[in-house]
Amino acid sequence: MPPSKPxxxxxxxxxxxxxxxxxxxxxxxxxxxxxxxxxxKEPEVLTSPPxxxxxxxxxxxxxxxxxxxxxxxxxxQIWPEHYSKLMKFAEGIxxxxxxxxxxVFVLATAGMRLLDPKVQKRILKETCSxxxxxxxxxxxxxxxxxxxxxDGETEGIYGWLGLNYLMGQFDKYDTKQEEHESIGFMDxxxxxxxxxxxxxxxxxxxxxxxxxxxxxxxxxxGSTQQWNVFVETWLGFGANEARKRYLNHxxxxxxxxxxxxxxxxxxxxxxxxxxxxxxxxxxxxxxxxGNYEMCSKTIYPLLQKNIPCKEDPCLFNGIHGPKLNFxxxxxxxxxxxxxxxxxxxxxxxxxxxxxxxxxxxxxCESDWQTILENSVKGKYSNLNPDTFLKDACFKAxxxxxxxxxGFELPRLGIDIPDKPKREVQNLxxxxxxxxxxxxxxxxxxxWTLGKILLVASSQIQESGKKAxxxxxxxxxxxxxxxxxxxxxxxxxxxxDSEDENxxxxxxxxxxxxxxxxFFVYHFGKSHxxxxxxxxxxxxxxxxxxxxxxxxxxxxxxxxRYFGNQHLYDNLQSINEVNLNLEEGLMSTIxxxxxxxxxxxxxxxxxxxxxxxxxxxxxxxxxxxxPQPSSPQxxxxxxFSSFINKPFVVPMRNSPALYNTGNNSRDSLxxxxxxxxxxxxxxxxx
Length: 685
Prior knowledge:
Layout: E1 9-17, E2 22-30, H1 32-38, H2 43-46, E3 52-53, E4 59-62, H3 72-75, H4 79-91, E5 104-108, H5 110-113, H6 117-134, E6 147-149, H7 152-166, E7 184-188, E8 192-197, H8 202-207, E9 212-218, E10 224-235, H9 239-255, E11 263-266, E12 274-279, E13 282-288, H10 292-299, E14 331-335, H11 336-344, H12 353-364, H13 368-376, H14 385-389, H15 392-406, E15 434-436, E16 439-440, E17 443-444, H16 447-458, E18 471-473, E19 483-484, H17 497-527, H18 529-536, H19 542-552, H20 559-583, E20 588-589, E21 598-599, H21 604-613, H22 618-624, H23 636-643, H24 674-684
Parallel strand pairs: 1-5, 5-6, 7-14, 11-13, 14-15
Antiparallel strand pairs: 1-2, 2-3, 2-4, 7-8, 8-10, 9-10, 9-18, 12-13, 16-17, 18-19, 20-21
Helix pairs in contact: 4-6, 7-16, 9-15, 10-15, 11-15, 12-15, 19-20
């Protein structure tokens, strides 16, 4: 039900478009100005960020993920089959009078990251235009600020923000205090896994300052919170993608045996279970072996711990970062950390290596028929056996490998001393700095909460002149741009300015192109006259001209110009030879009629001898005259490089996430004379 006094509240919508589906989350918060007035004598409220509210029924998920709409055939269905359901759901919760002031953020994650950037752009463009067309919710003119594919690091920081907000770590923030305690965040989805935490050691923070991002929040009183967060993501290390890599690895190893018949043994699959799997266009039968120890050892290479880091300490897959201090640091894992532990093994919450390890071992080595019978009895949260239970042994082992081998979480009894069993009856007696969770104090834990916290916080005006803008300042080593807390929401539902910018940029490029030629045509003769004389002395070799003349003679409209130009150039070449000889320039004839090399002296008699030795018509004699070679002409090399430079048309700048080209007019052709300009003009007409 909508609130009784909607004018007191602001609303926000975040849609998490992941690999398996899209989930809409609706949030609200009290207007910060009214909150400040109401609680002006309550320091604990004023020194905290806005309070975000969310009802339990303000969330809806639909499948499949938008990455499945990756062809033109399905692209137009993304609104009627996907987002229309989510937006209609939001319209039923948010009061109609607040629709135009309610920002929408569609943030795609790992599933979309795996697609080609061009396909991503088409999906995002269709998403943005359809929401603008069919709803009155607020989208910025620059749609890419609100509808985008976020990278894993940003997703990880959003999750860290949501976790620490629910844990109360941002409340009553003392700006004069240097040390502020926080909770580390771990997330494992289907395609990727992330970690985000503030190193508890000041020495580690200083050592890795180039690896730390600065996250800023705004309190109700306008003061700013600053947190130095290390965040890293591993694409392809989510539970589902890791499972695919694991099966591909098993098949590749099996194919090395020539006698293999296409039957693949899987130690991470319970005994008696089987399924079919396609790899490189061929289908294989995967049969369960149910060997827990072998499963764990076979999974380990997938972490790629063998890849060296540029700097220690090293986590996995060649990624380094601050050393995790599990004696002091605390971490909470969500998504697969929770689902696998809780739904299958009933071990969610406080993590205990002994208890979880034994349950996983028992499950992995169970007969598949026994697991099916237990499933019928409701032991595994009514999960689909073929979809979830066949992968449960692998996923549980993968989670433990990531925790203990990847992040080096100590294992009780192996890495740290174990207590006698009689003293371990109460798990509170054992310090294990990791727990899995789905909610905190009854509130759903989702990275979308972190995004909306930044949005609400950015609506507060800063109190200090040097306060940083609300958002995420990525680490220096990442080279990424600032991620604002909100976006430019001054006006919504306009035409997509991204497309408008592209059109205008193309228009400006054409204008510049035409203005340049206008300048050359009208002022070239007077301003570049000195160059004309020099350019005339440098001629393109006759064989090249003949090729050009022959090719262009076959093109209608060009034959007339290039044919005449060829005759003109022949006459010019004769004049140039005579002029060179008259002025005393050196010329070299490569060989005489008998193939003997000879030197031509700069004398009239030499010229007469050459003329007497050649008989025939005037045109034949002209064509047989020795041509000065280009390398011997002064300045011919620079002119040749200049004249052969390609003509560059300034390209339009691409939007935010794309490369921007540099425009240059240094390579533009110069027109040597007004006569050639007129001929070019007539040929173009």
